[in-house]
């Protein structure tokens, strides 16, 4: 009485054997899939065109009063930073020949190493400048309008330095 278990492989249905609803759902899913793919392609193509156009317009439009330059930072901090970059540049060098010399040439010419330094960068120059400014602020006399934490800080600094 051994029962034999017969395994039946599923038969693949053809288009003719599908019901009307199955056919409609298949067509609808294909159309939806193609629409999504087309949407991604169009989105990516318009995105790349808009960025390339804006970069081209920004490069072409260099007039000081132009719309493209209204997004330029003109705060005192930005102007000082731009001035520092321009001060370190060497415009007499061709950037296509030696970009490092073009970008940093004047920094190399105008910056001197002290005896205790083995190297110097723009960051060490900025650090030294900030320490100098802090020392000047700490050594300045206390004013009555100065906030209490700053006055206490100056007193502590004076106590440590005496």
TrEMBL record:
Q: What is its main location?
A: membrane
Positions of transmembrane segments: 25-43
Q: Does the keyword Membrane apply?
A: yes
How is the protein disposed in the membrane? Single-pass type II membrane protein
Keyword Transmembrane helix carried by entry: yes
The GO terms describing molecular function are: metalloendopeptidase activity
| Protein name stated in the entry | Peptidase M13 N-terminal domain-containing protein
Q: Which species does the entry assign this protein to?
A: Photinus pyralis (Common eastern firefly)
């Amino acid at each position: 009485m051994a029962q034999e278990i017969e395994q039946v492989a599923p038969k693949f249905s053809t288009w003719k054997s599908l019901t009307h609803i199955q056919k409609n759902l298949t067509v609808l899913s294909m159309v939806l899939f193609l629409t999504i793919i087309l949407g991604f392609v169009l989105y990516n193509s318009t995105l790349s065109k808009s960025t390339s156009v804006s970069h081209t317009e920004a490069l072409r439009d260099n007039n000081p009063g132009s719309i493209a330059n209204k997004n330029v930072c003109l705060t005192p901090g930005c102007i000082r930073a731009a001035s520092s970059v321009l001060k370190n540049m060497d415009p007499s060098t061709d950037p296509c020949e030696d970009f490092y010399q073009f970008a940093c040439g004047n920094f190399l010419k105008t910056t001197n190493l002290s005896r205790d330094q083995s190297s110097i960068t723009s960051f060490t120059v900025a650090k030294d400048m900030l320490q100098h400014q802090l020392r000047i602020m700490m050594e300045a006399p206390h004013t009555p309008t100065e906030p209490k934490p700053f006055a206490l800080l100056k007193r502590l600094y004076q106590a440590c330095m005496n």
